[in-house]
Every structure is written in C-alpha cells, then in structure tokens.
C-alpha cells in the first residue's frame, strides 16, 4: 500500500542554520504531497503542498519540491528560527474515490538560540 | 470561528469506563477522520467517513465506535477503556474528490486512562 517515510529525529539546530527534512513516499498513482506542522500542544496545520511532479510548495520560508523520479518531497528552510521548533509530518493524499491522508512518522525539530 | 472543533480537550478516566469524544466541522467538508497519535507522535488513521458513511476502518478494536449523525459531525465512542488507549485523538476533515485535498485538524483530545 501507499506509505510515507521520513528521516528520524529529533533534529536539533542552532538558530539561522539550514534545515532539511527528508521525505520519500510509495504510491501506486499520483498523489498530492503535503507537509504539516504541529506546534507544541496544538493540532496539525498545513505548511505547504504540491499536487503534481515538479511543483514546488512554499510557505513561511519553507520549501519542498515534488520529485516523481526519486519519489521524494524534502522540506528545506534556509535559516531556521526558534519559533520553528515543532514536529513536521510529511503526508500524501491518495486520489481514489474517497480521500485518505497518510502521514509519515513525524520529525521533531528543536531550534536553539 | 474554529473550523474543526473537538471536545473535550483533556479526558482522564479509569480503566473499564466508556467515554465519548465529539467533533464538529463548519467547513462544509464531505469527509471526516479520526486519527490516533501515540506518545512518539506517530499518527495513525482510525476511521474515515464520507457523507455519513464509513469509508475506512483501519483495524481498530471494535471497542471504538464512530458515529456520524450528519456530515458535519463525527463522534468517537470508546467502550471498556484500556491503558493502551491513552493517546491524543485528532479529528480532521477534508473535501472529498478535490485535487488539492488537504486535511484540517482539530486541537486534539488528550485521553489518559488510569
């Protein structure tokens, strides 16, 4: 079945460091891909998305490019801030007769001043 | 206005009890979900309903029974609670059959079984 794999955390970075969180997926069709973020004590919220190959999603300085050839959707940010500390989930949405959003295991990010 | 709201936010109860968690969405979405997040933050889908019909049931014990009185509500009832049921439960919704489907989440219900 479809699945999402993420790099294991936790990840600890200093403020202004470069961030990459790897995500790869397995899907039989052409899913939409997402990054969700969960701040401490809160629910998940959408960070960015891409719906077809070579699309780039971006938001709040984060970017991810839908790479069909490598089945990847890596999350990057050039300069992280303390406020970026959260758990990041890569996800895909199957395009079937109904919706099903499948999440990766999550990667915890801590940014220290 | 809160798009997806679930109550209660915290629930502490004893083993063997029966409890319910309520969820409502005001986004006009057709599809609603329940996810369980364990202590390691892993999210696992439990159920999905589309227009009040059960679509996904992911090998969840039958002590868990979702109920959807209308497409804006999806409640979760749990019978005979066990210690292993302790987790954060998230309700979510999305618009079915739309290309850029994303899920909107509630704030979560932290269930602690003692």
Describe the structure.
The complex is a heterodimer of chains A (113) and B (114). Chain A has 113 residues and is mainly beta. Helices cover 0% and strands 54% of the residues of chain A. Chain A contains no helices and twelve strands. In chain A, a hairpin with a 5-residue loop joins strand 5 and strand 6. Chain A is globular. Chain B has 114 residues and is mainly β. Chain B is built from no helices and eleven strands. Chain B has strands at 4-7, 10-13, 19-25, 31-37, 43-50, 53-57, 64-70, 73-78, 87-94, 104-105, 109-113. In chain B, strand 5 and strand 6 form a beta hairpin. The radius of gyration of chain B is 13 Å and the shape is globular. The model of chain B has no long low-confidence stretch (mean pLDDT 90). Chain A binds chain B through residues 32, 34, 36, 38, 42-46, 49, 51, 87, 89, 91, 93, 95, 97-103, 105-106, 108, and chain B through 4, 31, 33, 35, 40-43, 45, 48, 50, 55-56, 90, 92, 94-97, 99-108.
């Amino acid at each position: 079945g479809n699945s999402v794999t993420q790099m294991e955390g936790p990840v600890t970075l200093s403020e202004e460091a470069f961030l990459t969180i790897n995500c790869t997926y397995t899907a039989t069709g052409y899913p939409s891909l997402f990054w969700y973020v969960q701040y401490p004590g809160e629910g998940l919220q959408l960070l960015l998305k891409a719906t077809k190959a070579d699309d780039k999603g971006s938001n709040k300085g984060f970017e991810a490019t839908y790479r069909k050839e490598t089945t990847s959707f890596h999350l990057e940010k050039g300069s992280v801030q303390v406020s970026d500390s959260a758990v990041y989930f890569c996800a895909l949405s199957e395009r079937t007769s109904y919706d099903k959003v499948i999440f990766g295991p999550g990667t915890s990010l801590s940014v220290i001043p | 206005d809160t798009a997806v709201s679930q109550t209660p936010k915290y629930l502490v109860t004893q083993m063997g009890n029966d409890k319910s968690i309520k969820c409502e969405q005001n986004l006009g979405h057709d599809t609603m979900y329940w996810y369980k997040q364990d202590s390691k933050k892993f999210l696992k889908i439990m159920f999905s309903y589309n227009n009040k019909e059960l679509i996904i049931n992911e090998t969840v014990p039958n002590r868990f029974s979702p109920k959807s009185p209308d497409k804006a509500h999806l409640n979760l009832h749990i019978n005979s609670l066990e210690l292993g049921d302790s987790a954060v439960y998230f309700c979510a919704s999305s618009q079915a059959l739309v290309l850029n489907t994303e899920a909107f989440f509630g704030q979560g219900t932290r269930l602690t079984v003692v």
